[in-house]
Amino acid sequence: MCVCLPQVVLEARHEPGYCAFYEECGRNPTVAGSLLPPIIPCLNYSRARALEGEHYQQLKKVCPMLDRGEGSTTACCSIKQLKSLEMSLMLSKAVLMRCPSCADNFAHLHCINTCSPDQTTTINVTRTMNITTLGIVKEAVVGYQAYLSTSFADKSFESCKNVRIPATGGYAIATMCGRYGSALCTAQRWYDFQGDSSNGLAPLDIDFRLIPEGVTEGIPDGVVPYAGRALGCNEMTPTGAEVCSCQDCQASCPVVPSPPPPAEPFTIGGVDGYLVLCVIFLCVLILAFLLFVTCTDKNSLATQEFLGSGFRAWGTLVASHPLKVLLASAVVTAAFATGLMHIELTTDPVQLWSAPNSRARMEKDFHDKHFDPFFRTNQMILTAPGRPGHFYDSLLFGKQNFSGIIAKDLILELLKLQKKIQFWSNDLNRMASLKDVCFAPLNPSNPSLTDCAVNSLPQYFQNSVDNLNAKVNMTELGVTKEVDWRDHFIYCVNSPLSFKDITDLQLSCMADYGAPVFPFLAVGGYENEGYTTAEALILTFSLNNYPRDNVKFKVALEWEQRFLDIVQEYQKSPGNPFTFAYMAERSLEDEINRTTAEDIPIFMISYAVIFVYIAVALGEYTSFSRILVDSKFLVGLGGILVVGCSVLASMGFYAWIGIPSSLIILQVVPFLVLAVGADNIFIFVLEYQRDARRPGEKREERIGRVLGNVAPSMLLCSLSESVCFFLGALSTMPAVKSFALYAALAVLMDFVLQMTAFVALLSLDARRQDGNRCELACCVSVKTTAPSKPNEGFLLPAMRKYYAPVLLHPVTRVIVIVVFIFMFISSIYLMFYVTVGLDQELAMPQGSYMLEYFKYLYAYFEVGVPTYFVTTKGFNFTSIAGMNATCSSVGCDPFSLTQKIQYATEYPDLSYMAIPANSWVDDFIDWLNPGSKCCRLYSIGPNKGKFCPASECEYQTIKLRKSKVTCVSVLLATRFMAYHTALTTSKEFTAALKIARELAHNITLSMRSIPGTSQDFEVFPYTVTYVFYEQYLTIVSEGLFNISLCLLPTFVVCCLLLGMDLRSGALNLLTIIMITVDTVGVMTLWGIDYNAVALINLVTAVGISVEFVSHMTRSFAMSIQPTHVERAKEATATMGSAVFAGVAMTNLPGIVVLAFAKAQLIQIFFFRLNLVITLLGMAHGLIFLPVLLSYFGPGVNKAVLLRLQQAKAQELELSSNAKNIYDNIGYENQENSPNPHHPVRTPHH
């Protein structure tokens, strides 16, 4: 029986040495739902009691700051009060114990209020209550004022405000400041919460008055605000406890120099340094050109004679047995191509772009081996644009602004949507749902739906509609209001690891699968942690990443496809209240494969356009009646088939030996070989058409002679390109390496088939044409005979008469050199500013739903991908030094692993680290602490809900090598998870990888210095994107290496095949270098990034440049015209016309068609880049090179001149002798038949 009568204390006396209350009176009947019994003291104005024995020892234990020695210590609290105070302080210290000085300051204040011998000088009792217990009426204190100096209060608050709670990841002050949380908490608000009897801990109301120094107004007489010494968080406590850690106390942090800022741009005199150097280089080159004095060197004919005679004999032999050669070529090609039955097409981006022995790949394999592969992500980002928000006046958190998307009806709609996905699985032979494939970290062996890792806002309510609808009236600071889902949401986004909120709803913030949902994974589009104003909801399903040969992998793909189907159907439904973007783990690969399949017709049209052009352009049209005779449709088709067969043979051969192919090989290699092959076809056919059969020469001998003239040039180009690509296979990038191998063999096979099958086809076509038979209808003949003179067509006369004279005019030559030097130097300057990388959205086709997803991702995500700092074996975590090197609580090394990551997050713009790593070592230490109430129960297994002793290791989450005797021996791997900042571009992803590796290396060195640590111990960063972006750390040097390897054989082969003509080789090399450099310069201007795809095209550019350049160089070197200018004119007209028709006009129509492709990769790296390569190759090969040769080309090869003069004289003599012996009436349309008006010469001997 208890009767309570509240009273107001009218007056009180305040004297040193006196108590205001003493001993416990009983429970406070006005306080309900307290965590501890709300025992209140009895009003008792009396002198402080002297303490001794057990009473003294208890005070010394609980309030050591009041100890004055046994026999000299007085206090105003009984043993019962000390025990109650001890229990209350233990609960509060549980969240403050990481910082001993903070915990000491907290206890200091409450010891002064409860036990100070001068109690009446610091407190003023304001309310009492008569309590009748067991028939005894006692006056109990239910409210008082406590006066503190602001110096003590502020310093105490400062020592505690940064103390963290490892279990929640938040600040301890957030749980001790009521509605204000950690962000808005002040000293006054902190003390107000401590003095509020409704907070679950305070047994009575305490009105804390914080009084600045020197202020006396409003203070009762005799009261002196308590101004004891509060400890700084960087001070040891009087009992010897260490200073607080850096993570809990900014003042404890050592002076860490800020990371160096990004390097300043290279300047000279305040101007772009690269620009200055390029201008100087430009001036030097132009000056050197103006001062140039030509010089000559000797050339050798031996190589040309050897090659020419060899190809002449070979061509004659093949042309004499065309059907046998075609059959043999078909058999060899078929033998190679049968390997296609075993072809393996690589579509996995990891295998495509990351070498198995690369650092990122090995680190990924290590992580996946010890922690399983990174889970598969399926995500939706939902917005509700135009939906009005509202203000909510929260009892606990004050007035809050809620955006339109943070609304109960939308959250319920989201909850309904995330429960929809299930389907019939043929692989499992039953209905399958999320639980069959989901990532379930706390119950991986037999998960239920509630064990699946689904991160979304409804998880703050455990995906329960009842929890979301829950409401309750609550009283706070004397105000009673209704609290609902909004109060719970506000609390949970600030304390996501809490198992119970501070509202009377008493709901957990943890997701139903037992893990926290961090706010940046549930909402997006907010500023400064204003989560209620978020503009987007985020829903993420995490699936297990099974090996591709696991049956569950197919089920995961089915689930993701069902997810996409449902989401797309939902997006089209009229009742959908959201505007959203979405993706599945399979989406990237699906969209790339889809667009590849959709763009195959574009490539087919491109090849068809090239074929039509070749078939039409190869024909020699002399009259309308002979169109079907002179056309080269079948020859053009044969040339295309030769290209196709060379590609099939290359792919089949590599399939035989187990080198996988890829989609980029299927797209690029045929295009490349077609460009190379078409050029050789044009040169060969045009040379044959422009040549006249010599007297007495058989058709087969003529084909052999023409082949002997042009085959060395064809060999020069093909061999240069093939060796170039074979050397390019030294690349470490799998995609570049496989492309180079396939291209090298395809180019080589193309040359071999041109020397065999195509020569045989031309022989058969020449036989048909000589017989005046129509193409496609060989039985039909025409009566119109072929003209006697060789057909030069339109292009050769035009270039000889107009183009070459204008180009090689003295003024034009100077202009051309100056312009091209300017282009070259400008491109060198622009090279320094080309963007390195490949933004992932470029891999998507236009109109792809993934483009919208990337837009939402960059707009609404506030943090980036998680990154793990993984440790290998060789570090002793069980030693004190080992634990101190990895923890971040009191007593830990200020430069521990987690502390260094913490320091990095203080400079997010430089480190790309947003959220520091939580340390499982801190959690372990917290778990071991007897005062901690955390993690003491089994969560799974037969002992679920029972106490879990520290000696138990079966349920630990770190990888252990277990022994039958001891629980813990060697840790094979551990990891500490942090988060990157929101990364949007390749440049940012690459920089984040570079900085993370530097940080991990620094951590590795410091941890290796700890005694007992293995010297091969390592810490490395890992996240799922590193394996893709590692290539950009070295792609510039890798590209320079590959392109240099490609350029080297072009110089060597050119020199060798031109008879050690070093000057021609050097000019050839210079022009190809200029084409390559200018290509990179234009890439900068046209927004084409430099990456592995671009590198493949640049290697291709070297090959195509050889076609534009080498034929022209050889033609000039073999010319016997008297001056450099005349030789350049001849080479431009004869070979230039063939190159223009065979390379430029073959490539351009096909390239233009690619502009209509849907895939952005094809538009940018195949249309744009190949267009640039072709135009620049044509400009340098047909404009710059002839002018360059006219200035710097080699002199007339005297050996060639003498040999040609001898051959000409011999030819004239033979012709004259033949005239005297017989009339040549066959091939020349009988033009040389005897004229009835002229006598026939008689032979003479």
UniProtKB/TrEMBL annotation:
Keywords (A to Z) from UniProt: Cholesterol metabolism, Disulfide bond, Glycoprotein, Lipid metabolism, Membrane, Signal, Steroid metabolism, Sterol metabolism, Transmembrane, Transmembrane helix, Transport
GO terms for cellular component: endomembrane system; plasma membrane
Subcellular location: Endomembrane system
InterPro entries with a match to the protein in the record: HMGCR/SNAP/NPC1-like_SSD (IPR053958), NPC1_MLD (IPR053956), NPC1_N (IPR032190), SSD (IPR000731)
Membrane spanning residue stretches: 274-293, 600-621, 633-657, 663-686, 706-733, 739-764, 814-836, 1039-1059, 1066-1086, 1092-1110, 1131-1157, 1169-1193
Gene Ontology MF term list: cholesterol binding
Any one GO biological process: cholesterol metabolic process
Membrane topology reported for the UniProt record: Multi-pass membrane protein
Positions of region (Disordered): 1226-1245
Catalytic reaction list: cholesterol(in) = cholesterol(out)
SSD domain location: 599-764
Chief site of localization: membrane
Family: Belongs to the patched family.
The name this protein goes by in its record: SSD domain-containing protein
